[in-house]
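Sanity check

After download, print the first record. It should look like this:
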Amino acid sequence: MTKTLFACALALAAVSAAPALAQAPQNDRGAFQGPYVGIQGGWQQDRQTLDVNGVRQGSASADGFAYGGQIGYDTHLSPNFVLGGEFSVTGKTGRSDLDGFDLRQGRTFNATGRLGYTVTPNSLLYARGGYSNARFTVSDATTRVSDNRGGYTVGGGLEQSFGRNVSGRVEYAYSHFGRDDLSALFGPGSQVNYNRHAVTAGLNYRF
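Expected C-alpha cells:
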C-alpha cells in the first residue's frame, strides 16, 4: 500500500508541476505534435495466477518501483484528435516467491500506438495499446532460468502541456504476457497466467 501511495503521489506531482514551469506560448503545430523523448516512473505489480479448468487456485504478486524512458512521435489528425506512436524501455525493483522459487521481473520493451482527444488545447486524454516484451527470471539455490515473454499492453492516461517544449502525463497500463501449460504438474486444464498492472507518471521534452 505504501508503494501504491508513493506512485500516486509521484503522478500527482507531475501534473501539478505546471505552475513551476514557464508558460511559453504554443507553436503553430499545436501542443501535441512532432517528436519527443522522456522519462517515467511509478508503481508496478506483476502477478502470476494458477488456474485449473478456469478456477483460480493460487497467485503470487510482486510490487515495485518501475522506471524507464520513452521516445515517440505525435501528429494531429484534426484540431482535436491526436495519433501517436511510442517505444519505451522500463525496469522494475522487487521480487516475489512462487512456490519456493525466487521470481524477478527484468527489462520490458513496449511498442505502442495511441489515440487521443484534446479536452483543452493543452490537455490530451488518450488510450494506448500495442506489443510488450518482458524478461522474467526464476531461480533457487542451484538453478536460474530466464524467459523473454511477448504479450500485449493496453491503457490510457492524461497528458498536460506545460509550455512550448515540456509536457507531463499520468498513465495506467495493463499487460498480459501469455500463459504456461502446467497440466503435467497439476492435472489437465492447469495453467499459469502472467499479468501486470502499472500506474506511472512521465515527463516529455518535445522538439
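If your output differs, re-run the checksum step. Summary of this record's structure: The CA atoms of residues 48 and 194 lie 5 Å apart.
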